[in-house]
Amino acid sequence: MVQSLYFDGKSAADRPVAVTLGALALRFEGETTAARDWPYDDLAAIETHHPGHPFRLTSKAEPNARLVLRDDTLALALINRAPQLKGGASLKGVAKVAGGIAGGLAAVALAGYLVVQFAPQKLAFVLPDSWRERVGAQVEVSLTEGAKHCTGNEGVSALGAMAARLAEGNPDLPPLSIRVYDVPVMNAFAMPGERIVITRELIRRANRPEQVAGVLAHEVGHVMRRHSEAQLVRVTGMQILFSIMTGGGSDTVSSIVGIATILSYTREAEAEADDVAVKLMTDAAIDPLGLKEFFEILLAEEGKASAGRWGEITSVLNTHPGTEDRIKKIQPLPDGIAARPVMTDAQWDALKKICE
Amino acid sequence: MNDASPSQDLAPRGETLRIDYVPRDGLLKLSLVNFLLGIVTLTVYRFWARTNIRRHIWACVHINGQPLEYTGKGIELFKGALIVFAVLGLPVVLAVSAISIAYGPEHPAVAGIQTLVFLIVSLLWGAALFRARRYQLSRTLWRGIRGGLEGSATTYSLTYFGAMLAKSMSFGWATPVMNLNLQQQMTGASRFGDMPFAFKGRAGPLYPAYALCWFLTLGAIIGIGVLLFAGLQPMFGEDFSQWLAELFVGQDTPAEDSWVMVLVVLGGLVALLFVFSVIYPVIWAFYTARELSVFASYTTLDRARFRLDASAGSIIALTLGNLLLWLFTLGIATPYIQQRLIRYICDRLTIEGEVDIDRILQSKAPLGTMGEGLADAFDVGGI
Questions:
Q1: Cβ contact, residue pair B90, A244, below 8 Å
Q2: Cα of A21 to nearest chain B Cα, Å
Q3: Which domains, ranges and CATH numbers included, belong to chain A?
Q4: How far, in Å, CA of A288 to CA of A293, rounded?
Q5: Which CB contacts under 8 angstroms, 24+ apart, belong to A295-303?
Q6: DSSP one-letter string for B75-89
Q7: Number of separate helices (H) and strands (E) present in chain B
Q8: Model-level pTM?
Q9: Per residue of chain B (383 residues), what is the pLDDT tens digit?
Q10: In terms of CB atoms within 10 Å, which end of chain B has fewer, N or C?
Q11: A226 contacts in chain B (CB < 8 Å)
């Protein structure tokens, strides 16, 4: 019989022992080891048995002790008596792991739904005004960094007149801060705290006041639905969620998923703002086709590459697919409502010169 | 040792130790399972993956014919990381988020918190390394006896922080002394059962290799700088220096040809950065090899002294091989990379002199129940 080795877990000495298989227990003894029994039920394999390799065992009563069997026949006979030593993947073990993973994923999906879909739009209307105001002011500063704020007196009052005109028939319209910046790219932005920024290029490219009014109504749509506040909550929530998932690391993955999520919500928000814009303009008896015409100008612009910091912003605009679809959705004023002008010709001239 | 009865057995007995790496099947399966479960669990499986790899690799390391055994559990690592995240990570994330929403992302408190976190992490980094080593040793069994690490993680952490400061303030020249100091603390605190490791020696022998690598690095930086300038100067002539000045002063609408310059310069910088990221480890392999050999030769266990035949060439081959392995398998081969690291040591380590193995008793240090929380949080877990 090949001798086995016993390590008692108290000292590093190796003790040669002879092993016999009893009815209920494995028994071993040697020169320096008094006979002892390890019941079959208490045995555990350190690793699964590979023929030709030593088979290492331990017992519940002596968790640090090790018995090393070097005889395959003996090892197989033992596994026959103590089937738990066979090891390998059990159906129960696999089911447990799969269940754990499924449960974890369900929890993540729920948290993701709360953070991305459910909470932002609700929380956006709960954020204190002072918070929205402070964040909005900072966003405006960083967005327009380096660009001139246009403060031509008559232009500013023309802009005020346009906002007042939009409020006709829309008493719910919140007080707005509308500013024009001298930026060579056609765009407009809505920010937290009822802030709207329009670029000079947009005004320059507009052919009639209704087009600017359409863009303004669209941005007012964002403001009234608090889209930028919701986006702020969404981005923050996603950052928290990702840092919990990854234990604080992995910025690349989180920013890729984050940008994808944000873009998909941006598209949804754009469509919503379009709907609000058309409704506002209809109620104020302003020709909604102004917004449509602006989109057509935008469409002609798409594909033209522009460079620099402001180019990046236009390219985000360009990633909205379906400008054509948005154009199709805009209907003229219903029969019976006659469009009234947005502003006088003199005011329109003043608005065009707001940056001079 | 306090045995009162007189014995003739007092003459030193012992055996020489021999380390072999005996590879086993199953690493490929382990790599694939770890990779797939990592994806399915959105990376949370990493704790169990690391545990499985260690269990496999440890069992391949045979000392005098008996394998090492890794007894750590994935749940221990998971719990440790969870607690560190709850205590350190989550409060920071929540505070930064709250301030960003309430006061805007550019409020000075955000930068303040980030600085504070950087400081705390720097102070705790050494403790993280120390505790990770303690966890690994306490989960490593040979002949039924486990390893251990005595001493204080706080002391080690402060030493580590001081060493970082000293290294940077001396332009690196304190590195050999500081590394020796840290190694002395770590090895001196290591135990196998109740038998301590000892570490004793001077930093002097490390300095020739350090000086060589330091000056080679300086030369490489200067050389690359000269190459960059010499390569670009004739391309753009006189305009180049003027354009550089304008680039740093900042121009709103750069002329079209200066965009070409930006692209060329950026491309050149990326290429040089890549060249440097290969050159740098190649240069420093000379020092790494020297440090490994010297530190091994300063290490003793009972009456045995360690010897590690590390060489710059073999370290370069190891590092670059692992880099390529990682890149071409997208990280799936991580277990093989770790096996190569352990194998490198096993193949080149010899132990001269004898260890009285039979005299070694089980460690009395308590087994912590938590894994390498800090180390995982800071991503310094190593293998």
A1: yes
A2: 23
A3: 4-86 (2.30.29.30), 118-352 (no CATH)
A4: 9
A5: A295/A323, A295/A326, A295/A327, A295/A330, A296/A327, A297/A186, A297/A205, A297/A206, A297/A211, A298/A186, A298/A323, A299/A323, A299/A324, A299/A327, A301/A186
A6: HHHHHHHHHHIIIII
A7: 13, 11
A8: 0.77
A9: 444 444 445 556 788 999 999 998 889 999 999 999 988 888 888 899 999 999 999 999 999 999 999 999 888 888 888 888 888 888 888 888 888 788 877 778 888 888 888 898 889 889 889 988 988 999 999 999 999 999 888 899 999 999 999 999 999 999 999 999 999 999 999 999 999 999 999 999 999 999 999 999 999 888 887 877 777 666 666 566 666 655 555 544 445 555 666 777 777 778 777 777 788 889 999 999 999 999 999 999 999 999 999 999 999 999 999 989 998 998 899 999 999 999 999 999 999 999 999 999 998 877 766 666 566 555 444 55
A10: N
A11: none
Beta bridge partners of B69: B141
- Give the distance from CA A337 to its chain's centroid: 43
- Neighbour-count burial of A19, counting CB atoms closer than 10 A to its CB (0-12 exposed, 13-18 middle, 19+ buried): buried
The strand order across the sheet containing B349-355 reads B15-16, B349-355, B303-308, B299-301, B195-199, B190-192, B145-149, B140-142, B66-70, B61-63, B19-21
Q: How far is A128 from chain B (nearest CA, A)?
A: 8
Q: Which candidate from B94, B145, B252 shows the least CB-CB separation from A12?
A: B145
Token pair recorded at residue A263? 């873009």
Amino acid identity of residue A209, one-letter, is: P
Note which residues in 1-60 of chain A have CB less than 8 A from chain B.
7-14, 46-47, 50, 56
Does A66 contact B144 at a Cβ distance shorter than 8 Å? Answer: yes
With H, G, I as helix, E, B as strand and everything else as coil, classify residue A5.
strand
CA angle A329, A341, A183 (to 5 degrees): 70
Write out the H or E segment, with its range, that includes residue A264: helix A251-283
Amino acid at A165: R
Q: Per-domain residue ranges for chain B?
A: 81-198+360-383
Residue of A212, A219, A218 lying closest to A351 (CA atoms): A212
In one-letter notation, the amino acid at residue B177 is V
What are B258's two structure tokens? 């200066």
Assign 3-class secondary structure to A284-323: CCCCCHHHHHHHHHHHHHCCCCCCCHHHHHHHHHHCCCCH
Enclosing H/E stretch for B148: strand B145-149
φ and ψ at residue B270, rounded to 5 degrees: -60, -45
The shortest C-alpha distance from B109 to chain A (Å) reads 14
d(CA B198, CA B206): 19
Q: A47–B143: do the CB atoms touch at under 8 Å?
A: no
